[in-house]
Amino acid sequence: MKALKNKILEEGNVLSDNVLKVDSFLNHQIDPQLMREVGAEFASRFKDTGVTKILTLESSGIAPAVMAGLILDVPVVFARKRKSLTLSNDLYTASVHSYTKNETNDISVSIDYLNSDDIVLIIDDFLANGQALLGLLRIVEQSKAATAGAGIVIEKGFQPGGKLIRESGIRVESLAIISSLTNGKVEFLEEVLI
Ligand code: 5GP
Fold first, then answer.
1. For a substitution probing ligand 1, which of 22, 24, 100, 127 has the most ligand atoms within 8 Å of its CB?
2. How sure is the predictor about 194, in pLDDT bands with cuts at 50, 70 and 90?
3. Which residue has a Cα nearest atom 17 of ligand 1?
4. pLDDT computed for residue 89 by the predictor
5. 193, part of any domain
């Protein structure tokens, strides 16, 4: 997606060889016009999959997820993050380790909002090691819903998450795939990874 890649090049901040900061349009301040384009692109890529619900993770997945939900005309559910959960019968839960933040969160979704009739499109801001996406997939699995696939705004293709998840048979559509952040420079992978 050209507009997204241009925005990353113009405003992205390479913090290290592994971490890209995009606070000016995605992770802190949000660019609604760009998010609308991102949502439209996800909606177009998954329009024939019968999606009934979008699932994302608070907080940075919510903006692109809501824009896609608006166009696909389906509800958007966001998993909540908590430090630790006491077991509860009315929640689907999974444990997610974040390498960027070096912390583990339990994420949860109420059983009221996902069930076996649903076809779920998962949307998230970044795909790096794949732990967040795996956690969301475990939640879908617990609900016995089907998965249409995952829409990712920015994938770091040099980290293992994308390969791991695609190899497990899940369709992953990333709108910008970064091949390298070395020497403070963002480089994109042009071809789509299957
Ligand atoms: P994963 O679980 O795939 O390792 O990481 C996914 C989550 O970590 C994303 O939802 C995002 O919040 C965060 N993350 C991972 N890498 C980056 C990065 O380079 N920049 C930013 N801003 N967030 C990242």
1. 100
2. very low
3. 19
4. 80
5. no
Does some domain include residue 135?
A: yes
Mutate to test the pocket of ligand 1, among 20, 126, 164, 182 (most ligand atoms within 8 A of CB): 126
Mean predicted lDDT score pLDDT of the chain? 95
Q: For residue 133, which phi and psi values (nearest 5 degrees)?
A: -65, -40
Angle at 57 (CA atoms; ends 44, 92), nearest 5 degrees: 110
Instruction: Indicate which CATH number applies to the domain containing 133.
Output: 3.40.50.2020
Residue 105 lies in a domain: yes
- pLDDT attached to residue 163: 98
| Gap between the Cα atoms of 112 and 59, Å rounded | 20
CA of 126 to the centre of ligand 1 (A): 5
Residue 194: inside a domain: no
pLDDT digits (tens, 9 = 90+) for 17-65: 999 999 999 999 999 999 999 999 999 999 999 999 999 999 999 999 9
Task: Provide the 8-state DSSP code for 192.
Answer: P
Pocket of ligand 1 (CB under 6 A): 19-22, 27, 60, 98-100, 124-133, 156, 161
Domains contained in the chain, number: 1
pLDDT of residue 140: 98
64 touches 37 (CB < 8 A): no
Residue 32: domain span? 2-188
